[in-house]
Write a structure and sequence with these properties.
By secondary structure, the chain is mostly helical. It is built from 6 helices and 3 strands, in the order H-H-E-H-E-E-H-H-H.
Length: 144
């Protein structure tokens, strides 16, 4: 119960921060097509240190583009991403800096192929099929 109550407070704080963002902060909005594909494919690393995420869609897109990914170690990624296997996870400026330097200098193993495998397991078709299976099991279990 307490987890459910905490979420709206976090979202409220984020909305307030966005509303009161400094003038030097630019919100690009939704980016699609060639621009985002080029950014993913031309980058050496996708670094996403967000403190709060609901689903991690942008991370999933980076994994699908076979990008080397570094994220903040937060709960939303806990059940589907593994540090050092399909991505790198960190916390804090010093840790992020060390991981970035090691990735760019080739000292860390690539997680790109394993990250791509994760992305392929989470396609809309596959997730939809899992939902249909779940609904069928529920309907079979209970009489309506």
């Amino acid at each position: 119960m307490s987890v459910l109550r905490a979420r709206p407070q976090v979202q409220k704080k984020i909305k307030k921060a966005i509303k009161n963002a400094p003038k030097n902060v630019i919100f690009p909005g939704y980016i699609k097509g060639d621009i985002i594909e080029g950014a993913f494919l031309g980058a050496n690393l996708f670094f996403f240190p967000s403190h709060e995420e609901t689903e991690g869609i942008v991370v999933l897109e980076a994994l699908a583009a076979k990008q080397q990914v570094l994220i903040r170690d937060i709960g939303v990624y806990e059940d589907w991403l593994t540090d050092g296997v399909d991505c790198y996870k960190g916390n804090g400026v010093e840790e992020f800096t060390n991981i970035i330097v090691d990735i760019l200098n080739g000292k860390n193993n690539s997680t790109q192929e394993e990250g791509y495998k994760v992305a392929t397991t989470l396609t809309v078709d596959k997730v939809g099929k899992k939902l249909v299976e779940s609904y069928r099991r529920i309907l079979e279990k209970y009489e309506w």
